[in-house]
Amino acid sequence: MSGHTYSALRHPLVDPPRSLSQITDEIAAPMERAPSASFWAALGAAVALLALGAGMVTYEVATGIGTWGLNKTVGWAFDITNFVFWVGIGHAGTLISAILFLFRQKWRTSINRSAEAMTLFAVMCAALFPLIHMGRPWLAFWVFPYPNSRGSLWVNFRSPLLWDVFAISTYFTISLVFWFIGLIPDLATLRDRAAEGSLRRKIFALLAMGWNGSGRTWHRYETVYLLLAGLATPLVLSVHTIVSMDFATSLLPGWHATIFPPYFVAGAVFSGFAMVLTLMIIARKVLGLEHMITVRHLENMTKVIIVTGGIVGLAYGTEFFTAWYSGNPYERFTFINRAFGPYAWAYWTMISCNVLSPQLFWFRKIRTSPWAIFVVTIFINIGMWFERFVIVVTSLHRDFLPSSWSMYRPTVVEVGTLIGSFGLFFTLFLLFTRVLPMISIGEVKSVLTFARQPAGSASHAVPAAAAPVLEEGAA
Amino acid sequence: MSPVSQRRFAAQFASEEPLLAATREARERGFSIDDVFTPYAVHGLDEAMGLAPSRLPWVCFGAGLTGLVSMLSFEIWTSAVSWRLNVGGKPFDSLPAFIPVAFEFTVLCAGLGSVAALLLRTKLWPGRAPAVLPGTTNDKFTLVVHARAESDETLRALFEHHGALACGPLQPDAPAPAAPPAIATVAP
Predict the structure, then answer these.
(1) What domains, with CATH codes, occur in chain B?
(2) pTM here?
(3) 3-class secondary structure for A435-459?
(4) pLDDT tens-digit readout, B10-57
(5) Across the interface, which of B14, B40, B117 has its CB nearest the CB of A443?
């Protein structure tokens, strides 16, 4: 994983140069100093939102899902929109940690840890919605096949909703394990930094599980890390594919489309990268990590957004074309209604946020200006939420029978629950930046020499004679 | 264990390049490498140490295969044998619909199986607290080789040629890995 690659065409990943121990100190610093007033303010705000959400969910569970704005025509709306939105956000972490790892994209090392943490928190938020939609969340274990006194009556393995149960729970478990395995060497670093006999040292010693940096252990560790990346890659693609099948396997115009799996996966990566950028731009500023999460990292991510945003835009166009080309009047009606019906405002919000706003990233000035990126990513986050809303609600609200046409409007309880999920997400993320290293210490150390001539680097008191054996296929 | 393998000689370096060069040369000169301790995964170290490729991918494959076969059989058994339930007139044994869950379970078993095997094989579990060479998890790279007392001078010359910060023999009865006195006193 280390980089000896030197080429005048490559730019260093950590800039300005740092020594190995400086990297340890700088990444550990946010965990070792007292939280700032702005941290407490942010945490207080996040916890307040979380409390609002908890109140709304409590009220909903105690009263029933009649507190939502659903009706006989629109039986699926806000809840599933939020679920798909959060699952989508959760895709960027694994994409960065697994797919970019397999493609040997060394710039991922500064952002993979926090993107993976973000994935876990987003999947937690997502899982919350089907759980509360059950109405009786204490019976949630019914979704798993287990021997029971009703037959045994088994779950229906032909249902995409059940596939979702397995996809989301597997995705969460594997992401958690992947994240934790990546953390072990850093936990050992933190253990060895903490004062002898302190509680901090005991906790990190327990979590680091006796890691001592042995080359034999590293060798096996790297093997398993590669295996997990190889497993997580098809997994992450399968998760949103299966989420899209919740819709695509139905017979409803607007949902029943074979384009859904790639369309959803691209949308998920698109929204996930937008959310990673939103969080990173704030975190690098607040925690003073601008030399590790450099503008170049941000720029690379905006390029991923251009590509996935392009795929999403193409999918919107293809859906429309197919609806017209199919000659199916119901299909045609659904799409004309989507763009020009009562929910046209939502559709055009989606188009402007997801198709138009990422085009700004073609300009280098915008790609390299953190605050401009921040604004665009906020638009993308909004646009991707509306995409799910548009797909779910506009396909349902005017069905085959005009007498049952109706409109859907979220209630205060539903909006409060969505706000609460943001509260949960930010609370967990803020706590994470305080208790664990937000950037992978070990992996950043391994790319310190990337694109830098070894002789000039501070960490290299190496006689030139020792270098020739290290020559590798550069560039 | 022979007396040779019990006596060890350690050298500490400030970066990966001299460590790799020293490891390669020590091995070429016939010394047996006990272990190398580094703050991050050093590319090419496995080859320099002469480590054989890990067999953990086989564990991963086996665990994945077990997951695939067991989940497919379970799905077929529950849907077509234990309680045949007619869902929209579809066949009881509707294999294509069973693939997504079987795939997810394959990945789950393969992932958890490889990680469990890694932790068992490298003896990593909560409560373990081996001695850690100073600086290993921060910025020091340490090479430990098996050596008889008479080769100490050869080794010292070899490691100092490669720019070792400190080197010296480890105590024969020291718990592995313990720092040689010379290393323990190296200024950070």
Answers:
(1) 8-53+136-170 (3.30.70), 56-122 (no CATH)
(2) 0.90
(3) HCCCCCHHHHHHCCCCCCCHHHCCC
(4) 999 998 899 999 999 999 998 899 999 999 999 889 899 989 999 999
(5) B40
Which pLDDT value is given to residue B188?
35
Rg (C-alpha) for chain A, rounded Å, is 24
List all residues 6 or more positions away from A303 whose beta carbon is below 8 Å from its beta carbon. A361, A367
Q: Is the pLDDT confidence value at A263 over 90?
A: yes
Determine the distance in angstroms separating the CA of A289 from the nearest CA of chain B, rounded to an integer: 19
Compute the distance between CA of residue A113 and CA of residue A179 in angstroms, rounded to an integer. Answer: 7
Q: How far apart are CA A202 and CA A64, in angstroms?
A: 45
Residue B10: beta bridge partners?
Answer: B144, B168
pLDDT in tens, B115-127: 999 999 998 988 8
Structure tokens at A1: 């994983």
CB contact under 8 A, B118 and A221: yes
To test the contact with chain A by mutation, choose from B137, B139, B144 the residue with the greatest count of A C-beta atoms within 10 A, namely B137
User: Any residues with CB less than 8 A from the CB of A307 and at least 6 apart, and which?
Assistant: none
Helix (H, G, I), strand (E, B) or coil at A409: coil
Mean local confidence (pLDDT), A102-123: 88
Distance of alpha carbon A54 from alpha carbon A256, whole angstroms: 35
